[in-house]
Amino acid sequence: MFLSLPSHIDTFNMRNKIVAGNWKMNLDYAEGISLFSEIVNMVKDERKGSQIAVICAPFIHLNSLNQLSAGVVKIGAQNCHQMESGAYTGEISAQMIKSAGCEYVIIGHSERRQYFAETNELLAQKTILSLKNQLTPLFCIGETLEERNDGSYFEVLKKQLQEGLFNLSKADFLKIVIAYEPVWAIGTGLTASPAQAQDIHFFIRNEIKIKYGADIANATSILYGGSCNPKNAAELFAQSDIDGGLIGGASLKSRDFVDIIKALND
Ligand code: 13P
Fold first, then answer.
1. How far apart are CA 182 and CA 200, in angstroms?
2. Mutate to test the pocket of ligand 1, among 54, 186, 191, 224 (most ligand atoms within 8 A of CB)
3. Residue 251 contacts residue 243 (beta carbons within 8 Å)
């Protein structure tokens, strides 16, 4: 069956290398502009190759960052609402995010799952609306420390994939980026070892292969997130199934963030 590829996927078996920063609820307006400007200038001067750099910022920054991005660093939001529009006071829709110049949106970050009770079903709705508005979802999955220790983590990850993403058609699934973020590694300084991360990334890619076939599995970018920093990035990114990173704390420092981008092989 012929599938039309999204424009950012060059060939069927080549996947994008991506480093995305997640600023979370940090930086006021002026701080955000200042940090982003530094990042754009450094990426412009230092990036070699075709790695994609993304900053996922709080909503108030998005439009201004888009004006400053010069196409060098892509912009993403950290969440969107699951409905198209209407009486949802305080919420932001996928269409609004797109209109601010974003190309990406994080869906299902563990902090949203934990503090805002977001379920796989809800995240599936957000994913569909993001795709409908030509946003690339950075869809997060990951197990808690308890799930890692009791050995249920493969089941947990499988369920997150099945309920959150595997309702998509092949053509839509090709537009997704997955981020594996073990909850126990987020903001804790505890990083999954490269071997632990590779094991999980291989598992995720294999689940995609079982569901959608090898071509689609090989074309899907799977990022690692959780205490990734300039010291450990190169070894993580050298793993065959790790296609980049989703970076929290280290994305708040321009030097660290750009060094992580540079740790990504072309
Ligand atoms: P840290 O890099 O601060 O551990 O955060 C990871 C993360 O949650 C990115 O979304």
1. 10
2. 186
3. no
Is residue 7 situated within a structural domain?
A: no
Q: From ligand 1's centre to the CA of 86, what distance in Å?
A: 32
Instruction: Give 1's pLDDT tier (boundaries 50, 70, 90).
Output: very low
Upper half-sphere CA count for residue 1 (Cβ side, 13 Å): 8
pTM of the model: 0.94
Partners of 136 in the β-ladder: 104
Query: Domain holding 229: CATH number?
Result: 3.20.20.70
The answer as to whether 9 is a domain residue is: no
Q: How far is the CA of 141 from the centre of ligand 1 (A)?
A: 13
- Give the active site residue among 61, 81, 109, 201: 109
What's the domain range around 164?
A: 18-262
Q: How many domains does the chain have?
A: 1
CB of 183 shorter than 6 A to ligand 1 = no
Is residue 61 part of the annotated active site? The answer reads no
pLDDT over threshold 50, residue 78: yes
Residue-wise DSSP of 220-232:
--EEEESS--TTT
CA distances from 231 to 191, 228, 241 (A): 11, 8, 19
- In a domain, residue 13? The reply is no
